[in-house]
Design a protein that fits this description.
The complex is a heterodimer of chains A (about 110) and B (about 130).
Chain A lengths: L9 H27 L4 H34 L8 H22 L2
Chain B lengths: L15 H4 L7 H35 L4 H34 L8 H21 L2
Helix pairs in contact in B: 2-3, 3-4
Amino acid sequence: MLPPWDPGLQAERTGLAWQRTMLSGLTTSLLAARFLASLSVVLAVAVGVAALLGTAAVGWLAILRFRATHEALHAEQAVGDGRAPLLITILTVLTAIGALVYVASS
Amino acid sequence: MSDMPEPVERDRRWPRAVYGVGTEPDPRFSFANERTFLAWIRTSLGFLAAGVAIAAVSRFSDQLRLEVRLAAILLVLCGLACGIDGITRWIRNERAMRLGQPLHSSPLVLVLTVVIVLVAVVALIVVSFS
């Protein structure tokens, strides 16, 4: 494994920011799943399973992204891409739409 | 560190409106921009959790009252706005850094503050008179 690229550990800190965002997403969606259980158990289980799978996928993506960035920095190549931020935004917007339906209905 | 060489192969990074213009900034600034984006996503998730939670908790005892429902909807809308504004800011700031322009500000912070104060007032009324 290559050593950290800079003394400020920027890539590592960004990797950790991805991890805590992933955990926030898991917490929020499991909380939503728990509250949904009073309306529909099937829906609650579906949301819970989707939350776990989504978290696993985002965690895996974050690891791949960190490794690619780390290697690119050492190879003096350009870093950054907007696809992962776009994916996270889409997941957040979908969660928001679900939350809006929940608070506006019933 | 600040003048990274342009990649030899074709740049496949997205969006092109960002990576197709200007020069590569110091990667540390791009990382900071990315972490700020992620912080906005967590803020968004916090708003969503708060909105869903107050709707769910007030439903345990009673029918969802109008003011509680309104507060919950406002919080969820703030969550939605944070999510969309987060990536918009990320794109605009990354583009500004590549072009050497000043970073943008967003009026959303003011809106969020107003909504939080409003929800706090509703919460105060609900806990005082129930």
